[in-house]
């Protein structure tokens, strides 16, 4: 998906149509592209800047995904294990 975003920015960003791109590395990654010439773009950019490529958010997301995968692995192993019947 990121490659498509990068390709779009290469083709579309320019003096006639300046664009901003913000990458928030959370919830499997969030990319935001917006018109840099819009009257509201400066306020939005200032709001998003602390989240852009934030290493702490990226580490938290990596940890969340690792834990999620561990839970799925645990569920898979539990489902594959022989079941003991209650008597």
Structure overview:
The protein is α+β, with helices and mostly antiparallel strands. Helix content is 52%, strand content 14%. It contains three helices and two strands, in the order H-E-E-H-H. The protein has helices at residues 2-12, 41-48, 55-80; strands at residues 19-24, 30-35. The longest helix has 26 residues, at 55-80. The protein starts with a helix and ends in a 7-residue tail after the last helix. The model has no long low-confidence stretch (mean pLDDT 91).
Q: What is the percentage of strand-forming residues?
A: 5-15%
Q: Structural class, judged by helices and strands?
A: alpha+beta
Output the helix-strand order: HEEHH
Overall pLDDT: 91
The coarse overall form would be: elongated
Q: Could you give a short account of the major beta sheet? A: 2 strands, antiparallel
Across the major sheet, the strand order is 1-2
Low-pLDDT runs: none
Q: Give the distance, in angstroms, between the N- and C-terminal Cα atoms.
A: 53 Å
Provide a count of the helices.
Answer: 3
Q: Count of DSSP E strands?
A: 2
Helix content: 40-55%
Explain the layout of strands and helices.
Blueprint: H1 2-12, E1 19-24, E2 30-35, H2 41-48, H3 55-80
Antiparallel strand pairs: 1-2
């Amino acid at each position: 998906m990121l490659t498509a975003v990068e390709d779009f920015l290469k083709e579309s960003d320019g003096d006639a149509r300046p664009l901003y791109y913000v990458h928030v590395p959370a919830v499997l990654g969030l990319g935001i592209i917006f018109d840099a010439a819009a009257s509201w773009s400066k306020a939005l950019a200032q709001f998003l800047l602390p989240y852009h490529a934030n290493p702490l958010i990226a580490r938290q997301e990596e940890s969340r995904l690792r834990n999620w995968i561990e839970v799925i692995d645990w569920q898979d192993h539990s489902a594959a294990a022989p079941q003991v019947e209650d008597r």
